[in-house]
Amino acid sequence: MMTDTPKRDPYMQAALDEARQGLAEGGIPIGAVLVHQDRILGRGHNRRVQQDSATLHGEIDALERAGRQPGRVYRESVLYTTLSPCAMCSGAILLYGIGHVIVGENTTFLGEETLLQQRGVRIEVLQDPDCIALMGDFIRACPQLWNEDIGS
After folding, report:
1. Pairwise CA distance, residues 136 & 131, whole Å
2. Is the whole model's pTM more than 0.90, yes or no?
């Protein structure tokens, strides 16, 4: 007898693929995709290490790769991210008026979800086991790099 295993949302899968790509490049495994009307506009991953950048988090990379969009597009879009958004990324979410964020997990890091919710952003947290394992393994293996990234 076959049992069906639940399938991951394809957009969260795309964000997770981005996170894994970042790890494969020697970076921090956080990925994100910006989705508008069932189409990925931009996908990205944390590239701070790879680009020697102070600000290139996964969400910022996805927004950058989406290119300039009309305000209406941002307001109608959903941002998928493998990890709870930090203060900087939350600021970008608010700046562009993205009203819905789907978070892979917030057990390894709880970002500014309360702020986003207070400002009317709908937050869904999946507690995806693969997202949790990927980030947890990275934090254990590279605590100095992780602490640098989140400003500790």
Report:
1. 8
2. yes
For the segment 69-98, what is each residue's pLDDT rounded down to a tens digit?
Answer: 999 999 999 999 999 999 999 999 999 999
Residues in CB range of 99: below 8 A, 6 or more apart? 75, 120, 121, 122
Supply the residues annotated as catalytic: 59
- Could you read off the pLDDT of 96-141 as tens digits, one per residue? 999 999 999 999 999 999 999 999 999 999 999 999 999 999 999 9
Bridge partners of residue 44, in order along the sequence: 32
DSSP 8: P
The position carrying tokens 């390894």 is 108
Neighbours of 24 (CB within 10 A): 10
Q: What angle do CA 93, 82, 152 make, to 5 degrees?
A: 80
Average confidence (pLDDT) over 23-51: 97
What angle separates helix 129-141 from helix 10-24, to the nearest 10 degrees? 20
Sequence-separated (6 or more) residues with CB below 8 Å from residue 20: 29, 31, 134
